[in-house]
Amino acid sequence: MNQSHDGEHESARSKRILIVEDDPILGAILLEALQDEAAYEASHVLSGEMAQHILQTDIPALVLLDYHLPGISGLELTDWLRSREERGHIPVLLMSADVLPPEASGKKHLKTLQKPFELEALLQSIAELLVSGANADPGAAKALSHNHGAQ
């Protein structure tokens, strides 16, 4: 019984998503959609600086990131994240209503999503990135394979 509870807790932790979106309404919608539709454990912050503060001590499974943020842009936050050895593997889904600059393409574990988007497209992109992130992080891959065995 205790082992099953630990497996469920580990599964929820392996699907933690940090949403970085400066529009509080869109951030709340994304938070609710991820928690309700896909049962991810998600949190929302309004700026790149707030995300940096959280990412100093927390390692989510994925960062859902707006490109246009006050202060630090989404690409700048991605570069900062990639420069951290223990966090460089975290996949990033970069959302933007604008055409992204060329430097956005080709970044490892970075996928872009054009706003507005359908919920299904968002969930599909997140699922793909979680798999690629797990493959890049041996600890996460071990946790995910352990979780699949527990189901």
TrEMBL record:
Keywords: Phosphoprotein
The protein, known as: Response regulator
InterPro entries, per database record: Bact_response_regulator, CheY-like_superfamily, Sig_transdc_resp-reg_receiver
PROSITE patterns documented for this protein: RESPONSE_REGULATORY
Post-translational modification 4-aspartylphosphate, affected residues: D66
Domain Response regulatory: 16-130
UniProt keyword Oxidoreductase present: no
Source species taxonomy: Bacteria, Bacillati, Chloroflexota, Ktedonobacteria, Ktedonobacterales
GO BP terms: phosphorelay signal transduction system
SMART domains linked to this entry: REC (SM00448)
Record flagged with keyword Phosphoprotein: yes
